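Appendix B. Chain record.
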Amino acid sequence: MTIRSIMTTNVFTVHERAPLTDVARAIVDHHLSGLPVVNDNGEMIGIISEKDVLREMHPLFQHLLDSPTPSLAHSAKDEGFADISNIKAGDVMTHHVQTVTPDTPLLEAAGLMVLWHIRRLPVVEGGKLVGIVSQGDVYQSIFKVHLHMQSDTQD
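Structure tokens predicted for this chain:
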């Protein structure tokens, strides 16, 4: 089974000049954990995650990410949120994005996600963004295939 069979083809994207408030709104409205970032030509040039937005929104969140023994007492406060309306998606996105093709096997994609510590993979074909898959999509599909195989052998 390949990525083509499970990828989401209606991919929500955000423009590189979109303010982080728009990115946060898209993440909330569409229940996403991140979005591909595109330029004026519609080419994917990066990816932005909910963690990227939160890092800019709440300066103490960065402390949690950087510290080997973070103090949760300070970071858990709801005060000190920064204005993110003037920060653009392109300023905080990940530039070097790992991608797969539609013909990538599911188990290979799962391995790449573990290796690269990522939760979503843009699917690119011929240099164009054609879909996206999440870690949950890949893992659940592998589980379904395995469970289906088990039930076939038990019959």
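Further analysis of this model is presented in Appendix C.
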